[in-house]
Design brief:
With 192 residues, this protein is mainly α. α3 packs parallel to α5, α5 packs parallel to α7 and α7 packs parallel to α9. 40% of the residues are buried.
């Protein structure tokens, strides 16, 4: 659950009182006794600044938060997304940190791989995703996410194999049928 100070700042932001919300979050971060509350206040500050179009200030707030908590996967994820939206190559550093901190968790690992792919680092994106691809117990949604990633990286053989694995688990899965059918159509195969 979020602290009262953070909820108050969210309410101020929702009312369009951006400067007041910013001041409330700065005070919450300064006065926080617990490091987790300080990190959450700084992350929320960056997020709200970004949403209000104050991108430079948002990144400055996130950099300050990361300086205090360099091992925060949540902060690296926000910084990766925000910098990635501006094609800032430093987004790749945050993606790499997120992978290192995620301890194999598929969600953050896939987010990092997608960010690397968006930055044009196709080979690195595939390397990051490879352990997830090779996980024999991967659920269908993960297989579909991975297939889309490999397809986006131009690795159609891996995408095909991932769609086939998904179809083996759920033969009527619409995402797997569509993905496999689309790749087949590109190869000129006809399916009925």
């Amino acid at each position: 659950p979020e602290s009262e100070a953070l909820q108050h700042a969210r309410n101020l932001f929702a009312q369009g009182l951006y400067d007041e919300a910013s001041a409330a979050l700065t005070a919450a971060a300064r006065d926080a006794a617990a490091p987790a509350l300080r990190r959450d206040a700084l992350a929320l500050h960056g997020e709200l600044l970004w949403q209000s179009g104050r991108h430079h200030e948002a990144l400055t707030a996130l950099d300050a938060a990361l300086a205090r908590d360099p091992d925060s996967a949540a902060l690296h994820c926000l910084a990766m997304v925000f910098r990635g939206e501006h094609h800032d190559p430093r987004a790749a550093d945050h993606a790499r940190a997120l992978v290192a901190l995620s301890d194999g968790d598929p969600g953050p690992t896939l987010r990092a791989a997608r960010a690397l792919l968006a930055l044009g680092l196709d080979d690195e994106a595939r390397r990051v995703a490879a352990p997830l691809r090779d996980d024999a117990a991967a659920p269908v949604p993960q297989l579909l996410d991975l297939a889309a990633l490999y397809e986006g990286a131009g690795d159609y053989a891996s995408a095909d194999a991932l769609y086939a694995r998904a179809l083996a688990l759920e033969p009527a899965n619409p995402g797997a049928l569509l993905g496999a059918g689309t790749l087949g159509a590109w190869r000129g195969e006809a399916h009925t």
